[in-house]
Automatic annotation (TrEMBL):
Class in the EC hierarchy, top level: hydrolase
Catalytic activity entry: IMP + H2O = 5-formamido-1-(5-phospho-D-ribosyl)imidazole-4-carboxamide
Documented EC number(s): 3.5.4.10
Pathway assigned to this chain's UniProt record: Purine metabolism; IMP biosynthesis via de novo pathway; IMP from 5-formamido-1-(5-phospho-D-ribosyl)imidazole-4-carboxamide: step 1/1
Name of the protein described by the UniProt record: IMP cyclohydrolase
Molecular-function annotations in GO: IMP cyclohydrolase activity
InterPro entries xrefs: IMP_cyclohydrolase (IPR010191), IMP_cyclohydrolase-like (IPR020600), IMP_cyclohydrolase-like_sf (IPR036795)
Primary gene name: purO
One GO biological process term: 'de novo' IMP biosynthetic process
SUPFAM superfamilies from the UniProt entry: Archaeal IMP cyclohydrolase PurO
Domain of life the protein comes from: Archaea
Family, similarity comment: Belongs to the archaeal IMP cyclohydrolase family.
Amino acid sequence: MYVGRFLVAAPGLAAYRVSSRSFPNRKVIERDGSLTVVPTGDAEPTDNPYVSYNCVRGVARADEGDEQVAVIGNGSHVDPVAEKVGMGYPARDALASALLALDYEKDDYDTPRIAAVVAADTAFIGTVRKDALVVREVDEPTLVATYGKDDPEPFALEAGTADTAARELYDHAFEHAISAAGVAVDGGGVETAIHNGE
């Protein structure tokens, strides 16, 4: 089954996978403290604005004594969500306002935007589709994808670390895996991991 890009989030743990039929020549790299999806060296040049973006950003929550949280998502909305969290917006409001402002991707498929804000003890997941904006607090691993599974649903994530979460999502049976990122959040901060299938 092909579900496109997807993420799984729970309190303290999340992972994101790039899956693509159209742009397979991409990878996740660490850049300036964020995890960023970029074209590989052999990728065809493109001016598509949805190909490269920050998929994971750690940020200190101004409203919670600088508690570190992670913002995860499938596009340029990750940055404004992180900025709003850093300014003190509650996670739910940061997700809702950024997703509503940027709306779904205006491509041939009306691709939904998906995102999550994960703290050590809480997690919120959201999506904006052509027909809805959905933001929910979740207390167990929850999946949302761009196609076919664009409404949050429980997901059996077995991983316990950023690295194992990235590998588990990369190896999942959903089709056309390209790359994956994992995130673990605890009192010590945000830990990230990358799995590019190598």
